[in-house]
Amino acid sequence: MPYQEGPMTEAMYYVLLALSKPTHGYQLMLDIKEISGGRIEMGPGTLYGVLTRLLKENLLRIKQDDGRRKTYELTIQGRIALKSEYERLKSMLKDGAFLEGE
């Protein structure tokens, strides 16, 4: 199933963001916590649900599977989707900037 353009869930965004370098599931959980400044602690159930969805949508692939652990990496389509979502989020912040003057 190809990726359907549109807003991502927060979990999808942070998984893709953390996959700026190939890594495995447990390290992804640690990286997401670090990237978010501790705001997001993603559990294994959420993480592996998101990974399954992103694999189906061809936004990431399994780079290595040694039978014990899988290493995931972004596809080109995944990088494009991540950048698109980042630009969407920046636009939303810009649109709401007037709130700072209140």
Automatic annotation (TrEMBL):
TM ranges are none
Signal peptide start-end: none
Which InterPro entries does the UniProt record give?
Metal_resp_DNA-bind_regulator, Tscrpt_reg_PadR_N, WH-like_DNA-bd_sf, WH_DNA-bd_sf
Q: What Pfam families does UniProt report for this protein, alphabetically?
A: PadR
Source domain of life:
Bacteria
- Report the residue ranges that make up the Transcription regulator PadR N-terminal domain in this protein: 20-83
What PANTHER family does the annotation carry? PADR-FAMILY TRANSCRIPTIONAL REGULATOR
What name appears for this protein in its UniProt entry? PadR family transcriptional regulator
